[in-house]
Amino acid sequence: MEFRGAFTALSTPFKDGEIDEATYRDFIEWQIEQGIDGLVPCGTTGEAATMSHQEQGQTIKICVEQAKGRVPVIAGAGSNSTKEAIELTKMAKEAGADAALQITPYYNKPTPGGLVEHFKAIAKEASMPFVIYNVPGRTGLNCLPEHLKMIVDAVPEAVAVKEATGNMTQAAQVIEQCGRNFNLMSGDDFTVLPLLAVGGCGVISVISNIMPAAMSGMVKAFFEKDLDKAIDLSLKMAPVNRAMFMETNPIPVKTSLAMMGLFKDAQFRLPIVPLQEENKPKLEAVLKNAGVL
């Protein structure tokens, strides 16, 4: 399976503390209308860390139902507990997701051998395509290219990586270790274009929540060898990318969605809190400059 293009790490709307299904369905529809290439429910941006397993299963199911096979769905299903990751992956598979996003176990800091056994155990119980999620800034563990190669060799389900280090040397070494046919996806919106240049196939993006046409257009332009257009779109998104991380993701992006009227408001679950008041005018100014508002 090839994961080519821009995939949105979907923000999850809440209403009175619960998942706002109607708004979520409308948001997914808007993403597809805007030309997004794929959808990723229940990732970091979707606040899966504060969802129950039942809520994760519900969210994935809504996304798959609404997508109706028009674009692939990569469902967040990872955990630092192998047992929990197996349960979540089973739910993603039963819901009809095309792949499961599998984070490297956080906090535990497993050895490379432990990583291999973790993903082998999940695959044994719930075999489906896996996108390994490497985000050391959140997990405390960097899955190096040689360790990823160990996983890929031992677990045929591991067909892609979401590489969120922002390190282009490491990204290039992933292709060197795992081959040209391996799906290297960016998990860092700041470095999508250079990652494509070293052999990447796409991105799982935060900014595409609010600028799906720009991000999907940039990736498409790159593959159509229209580098000038790709660079122009990259430069257009650059200040918005910075704004999306003025506070912890997903605070700015969800606030932006509320400003755009795509979400009714920006509700979060603790320990995530709303955007600081002094940052709201700064965010609004960036969005207006980019033509988003």
UniProtKB/TrEMBL annotation:
What EC designation does it have? 4.3.3.7
Database matches in Gene3D superfamilies:
Aldolase class I
Where, per UniProt, does this protein localize? Cytoplasm
What are the site positions for Part of a proton relay during catalysis?
Answer: 44, 107
CDD domains, alphabetically? DHDPS (cd00950)
Residues noted as binding pyruvate in the record, renumbered to the chain: 45, 204
Q: Which UniProt keywords apply?
A: Amino-acid biosynthesis, Cytoplasm, Diaminopimelate biosynthesis, Lyase, Lysine biosynthesis, Schiff base
Give the source's domain of life in one word: Bacteria
Broadest EC class assigned to this enzyme = lyase
Q: Does Lyase appear among the keywords?
A: yes
InterPro entries named in the record: Aldolase_TIM, DapA, DapA-like, Schiff_base-form_aldolases_CS
Any one Pfam family match given in the protein's UniProt record, by short name = DHDPS
- List the pathway annotation: Amino-acid biosynthesis; L-lysine biosynthesis via DAP pathway; (S)-tetrahydrodipicolinate from L-aspartate: step 3/4
Q: How does it assemble?
A: Homotetramer; dimer of dimers.
Per its database record, what is this protein's job? Catalyzes the condensation of (S)-aspartate-beta-semialdehyde [(S)-ASA] and pyruvate to 4-hydroxy-tetrahydrodipicolinate (HTPA).
Q: Output this protein's name.
A: 4-hydroxy-tetrahydrodipicolinate synthase
Protein encoded by which gene: dapA
